[in-house]
Amino acid sequence: MRNRDHELNFPLLKIRPAYGVLPFLVLLGLSVGFTAGKSSPALAQSNPKIAAIVNDEPISQFDVSQRIKLNKLLGQTSGARKEILDELVEEQLQRQQAKRLRIGVTDEEIDGTIEKMIERRRSTPEVFNKQLKKIGVNPETMRNRVKALLAWRRILSRRFGKLVELDEQDIDRAFQRAQKNKRPAQRFFMLQQINLPFDGALDQASIQGRQIEAQRIIQGFKGCRSTRRIARGIYNVQIRNIGPIPLKQVKPNLRKLLRKAGPGKLLPPNMTRKGIELLAYCSNKTVAAREVTREQVRAALASQQFGLISKRYLRDLKRDAIIDLR
Predict the structure, then answer these.
(1) In sequence order, what are the residues at sequence separation of 6 or more whose Cβ sits closer than 8 angstroms to the Cβ of residue 195?
(2) Contact 322, 55 (CB under 8 A)
(3) Could you tell me the mean pLDDT of each successive run of 10 residues in the chain, 326 residues long?
(4) Could you give the angle at the alpha carbon of 192 between the alpha carbons of 191 and 197, nearest 5°?
(5) Which of 141, 93, 133 has the alpha carbon at shortest distance from 114?
(6) pLDDT at position 191, please?
(7) Structural domain tally of the chain?
(8) What domain range includes position 42?
(9) What CATH number should be reported for the domain holding residue 211?
(10) C-beta separation of 194 from 280 below 8 A
């Protein structure tokens, strides 16, 4: 078997991190910048476990470390400690203001929002909770974040909803731009990776044994649904489904191999130092871009206005707050 240069482990796939709660920040127009109001660092510095105190309510160093880990999992590029602390201070102010105005958020609303976010990540609650546990993040960290965002959105709607005025001509122009800039249909690929790793010392006998098992899979392959059946009885075979992957995220050399093989076929085997790899081209699908409605455009323009209101309101809350930072 010839040793081919194309690795199947992911150098051929340019997979971008999915984004989780970030759309909520965009929707609300929240600012991550921070200008402290009345600040007296001595109070917070008296306890090394405290990162900040906002109107007599503490934010711990543990809270900051938890948020840094969570943001990294959600794919947010910004993870600097100061920016994370600023984010937590703003959320503390939002929760405090919601409490003053007697604006609550139910557990059902929080759960529903988190479930939608997980769906956008093409994941499940079980998988997401395992990811949180793996990096040492308490699920309450996520819930506290969503609770603050939902409460803040409700505050803005209740207090400033009547101040948002939209011009019908502005909506028409924005709708026409959206129609003109409509995204084209996008093609996605579903792949399956099959690995036969070498175990123990690498000798001729083990290589030949794996080659025979690879040929058995190649000869019996009848599409991606047949792989596990064919692999029964083969020791330490690893099968992993990959996708859907957008066409633009597939590197040109892999794209060429997929086009040549066609759906339902295996690509030529690849032997590396770690084992023999097979990549199956399961299927592809073309997804048309969603139609943008005039109501969606209206909502987007309203969101922009709420974003400006949100920044001003947060600025006023910070000005009147007592914020002690380490």
Answers:
(1) 237, 238, 239, 240, 275, 276, 277, 278
(2) yes
(3) 38 38 36 39 60 90 89 75 88 91 90 88 84 89 89 85 72 77 81 88 81 90 90 88 86 88 89 88 83 77 79 88 86
(4) 140
(5) 141
(6) 93
(7) 2
(8) 31-180+291-325
(9) 3.10.50.40
(10) yes
Specify whether 41 is located in the same domain as 155. Answer: yes
How many Cα atoms are found within 13 Å in the side-chain-facing hemisphere of 238? 12
Cβ pair 318, 36 in contact under 8 A: yes
Give yes or no for a contact between 56 and 97, defined as CB atoms under 8 angstroms apart.
no
Both tokens of 75, joined, read: 């794919």
Alpha-carbon distances of 26 from 119, 125, 143, 149, 228, rounded to whole Å: 18, 23, 18, 11, 43
Residues 154 and 268 occupy one common structural domain: no
In single-letter form, the type of residue at position 101 comes to L
Residue 173 sits in the same domain as residue 244: no
Tell which residue, 165, 153, 146, 99, has the closest CA to residue 313: 153
Q: Which residues pair with 197 in a beta bridge?
A: 275
